[in-house]
Design brief:
By secondary structure, this protein is of the alpha+beta class. The chain folds into two domains: about 40-185, Roll (PH-domain like), CATH 2.30.29.150; about 200-350, PH-domain like. The protein is built from eleven helices and 14 strands. The strands form three sheets. It has a seven-stranded antiparallel beta sheet. It has a four-stranded antiparallel beta sheet with strand order 8-9-10-11, covered by helices on one side. Strands 12-13-14 form a three-stranded antiparallel beta sheet, with helices on one face. β13 and β14 form a beta hairpin. It comes from Effrenium voratum. This is Histone chaperone RTT106/FACT complex subunit SPT16-like middle domain-containing protein.
């Protein structure tokens, strides 16, 4: 039996267990251990296609070795996430982290890759329906080597083709990760696009957490924490709230699957107007087209939803620089009024309980997490991570 385990021969190991215990007892043992098997067995019996070592993960926070297998994804670390089946990955989102000095359309220094799940991953007492990966936007990354597992399968062939192209081009980490995940899952990534909304990302607060709202063709996403994805099919309607914060009002989103609406605060007035127009057209298109993805959802009514409609220059919402709390506090201390809005050229291309400590706590010195620690000293709070 030890030899079967060492050789990672699942069939031989199963035969030995059945021989020693009998078919009935072996079946009961398997059924009683199914939860543990889903976390540990994939590392032994799954056919590994690619191994991506030391991937920085924002939610749930930690550093993991990411294994792409025939069945799905395995995040291997101090607190393994277990096997995430490919069919449970609903969307792959790729959005740029907001930077105050980045020009519209320019590459970002860091990207967030979001795996939107139909089934939550449980870590401690929290359920996560979004797995958020950090991916460097400028540093070239070596393409991972193709593992021998799954030879001959269609998924293996797709991944092999992508890795061959990546090895020749030497692209940045965000390109390597996104293209490998696209090939493994068999779906295209979703990115912000000017044809969907004039705004690439909108700074907002969810409770006490500062983040960014990303309007996408498949729904609205708030990152980095709490990581929330609101699919178009689950959005009932949206409205402007009565909040009067230092930077603007509130955005209230009512969902079909949840009686409690999501409230995002401290949005600039022009951004609220643009988001309401985007959400209104997105929901209307989904309801009238059976869930299809709209080509144009940046208008305020049916006329603006028309592909031939062009937004006039004075109607386009102003683009805003992201202003962090530290910048605001520094300006207040110096007696200056912080600049919260800046007009930029329109985009021409894509541009509450206290949680338990995460097991991968050695990543506190990781440079990928440094920006998050500087901007907020508040512990994570429990929020809903539902997408259904």
């Amino acid at each position: 039996m030890d030899a079967a385990v060492a050789a990672q021969d699942a069939a031989k190991l199963a035969g030995l267990v059945k021989e020693q215990l009998g078919p009935t007892a072996a079946l009961k043992l398997l059924q009683g251990s199914v939860n543990e098997l889903t976390k540990e067995a994939p590392l032994v019996v799954a056919e590994v296609l690619v191994k991506l070592p030391s991937i920085s993960v924002s939610m749930p926070r930690g550093r993991y070795d990411l294994l792409l297998t025939e069945k799905g994804l395995v995040f291997q670390g101090k607190t393994p996430l277990g096997l995430i089946l490919w069919e449970d990955v609903v969307h792959l989102l790729k959005v740029p982290k907001q930077e105050s000095n980045r020009k519209a359309g320019a590459p970002a220094k860091m990207y967030l890759l979001v795996l939107v799940l139909s089934q939550p991953v449980v870590v401690g007492k929290q359920e996560h329906r979004c797995i958020v990966l950090n991916a460097n936007g400028t540093k070239a990354a070596l393409a991972p080597a193709l593992e021998p597992g799954g030879s001959g399968s269609q998924r293996h062939a797709k991944v092999a083709k992508v890795l061959e192209a990546l090895s020749a081009e030497g692209q940045a980490e965000h390109e390597v990760l996104s293209q490998v995940l696209e090939a493994g899952r068999g779906i295209e990534k979703v990115e912000p696009a000017p044809s969907v909304c004039a705004l690439e990302g909108i700074q907002a607060w969810k409770g006490v957490e500062e983040g960014v709202l990303y309007p996408l063709s498949v729904g609205l996403c708030f990152l980095p924490k709490p990581a929330i994805f609101m699919p178009a099919k689950d959005i009932l309607h949206a409205e402007a709230g009565s909040g009067h914060g230092p930077r603007g009002g509130d955005l209230i989103i009512h969902r079909i699957s949840n009686t409690t609406p999501h409230i995002f605060s401290n949005l600039a007035g022009a951004d609220v107007t643009a988001l309401l127009a985007y959400l209104s057209t997105l929901v209307a298109h989904h309801q009238s087209n059976g869930g299809g993805v709209p080509k144009h959802v940046s208008g305020e009514d049916d006329e603006e939803a028309d592909p031939d409609y062009e937004v006039e220059g004075d109607q386009r919402p102003a683009k805003r620089r992201a202003v962090t709390r530290s910048q605001t506090k520094a300006a207040a201390a110096s007696g200056k009024t912080p600049v919260l809005m800046e007009d930029l050229e329109p985009q021409s291309s894509r541009p509450v309980e206290k949680d338990e400590p995460e097991a991968n706590s050695e990543d506190e010195d990781d440079p990928d997490f440094a920006a998050e620690e500087e901007e907020s000293e508040i512990d994570d709070e429990d929020f809903a991570f539902d997408v259904n």
